[in-house]
Amino acid sequence: MPIDEMNSMKQALIHMRESNDIELKKAKKGLPESFWESYSSFANTTGGLIVFGVNEAFPDNEIVGVEDSQKIVADLWNLLSNESKVSYRTVNNQDVTTVVVDDKTVILIKVNEAPNNVKPVYINGKIDNTWIRTGDGDRKAKKEEIASMLRNAKPEMDSLPIDGCTLDDLDIDSIKQFKQQVGNRYPAKKYLDMSDTDFLIEIGACRLNRENRKYQILRGTLLFFGKLNVIKEFYPHFHLDFFNRRGSNPRWIDRVSDDEPHEHEMNIFNFFNIVDKKLRELQNSSFHLDGQLKRIPEGTFNETIRECLVNCLAHADYEQGYPSIKIQAYDGWFSFFNPGEMLISRMQFPLGGDSRPRNEIIMKMFRLLGAAERQGFGGPLIFKTAFEYDYRRPELDTNLESTEIRVWNIDLADSYPELSKEEKSVLRYLHKSMSAISIKELSKKTNMTYYRAKKIIYSLKARNIIEQIGSGPSTKYVIKAGSEESLTQIQIAMDMIKRQLTK
Question: Where is the Schlafen AlbA-2 domain positioned along the sequence (predicted)?
Answer without folding.
Answer: 18-141
